[in-house]
Write a structure and sequence with these properties.
The protein has three helices and six strands. It is of the alpha+beta class. The chain has two domains: about 80 residues, no CATH class; about 30 residues, no CATH class. The strands form two sheets. It has a four-stranded antiparallel sheet with strand order 2-1-4-3. Helix 1 packs across helix 2. The longest helix has 22 residues. It starts with 5 loop residues before the first strand and ends in an 18-residue tail after the last strand. About 20% of the residues are buried.
């Protein structure tokens, strides 16, 4: 059975996310550790890894997770895109007159109390 490219977590970063490192040649070692922790076969551990990034553990410590590299990086990209989209939405304000979402800098008053943009005034 071929093992997909795996990554293991070395703990949380100072920015609040998890730091993932490629297992490389040590993938079988981490799978063996996960088999011991979960009391499962190799196939059982691979099924846990397929469930998601925080399903399979290789140790009893808090951030001792295994994940599939391709699926994990794709999920990370989606999360980054969602966060960027949320930041962009927070940086715009709806003009009550023209109905457009404009950058907050286009309003001379505070964004929370702004009713119309500078173009509509």
């Amino acid at each position: 059975m071929t093992t997909p490219a795996l990554q293991y977590c070395i703990g949380s970063s100072s920015l609040g996310g998890l730091q993932w490192v490629d297992c490389g040649d040590r993938a079988d070692e981490f799978i063996a550790k996960a088999m011991a922790v979960h009391g499962a076969t190799r196939e059982g551990v691979m099924a846990l890894i397929a469930k998601g990034p925080k399903s399979a553990r290789y140790h009893t410590d808090w951030y001792a997770y295994l994940r599939d590299k391709a699926r994990g990086e794709a999920a990370d990209a989606i999360a980054r895109d969602r966060a960027a989209s949320a930041r962009r939405q927070q940086q715009t304000t709806l003009c009550r007159k023209c109905g457009q979402h404009l950058p907050t800098s286009r309003f001379t008053t505070l964004p929370a109390s702004a009713q119309t943009c500078d173009d509509c005034v």
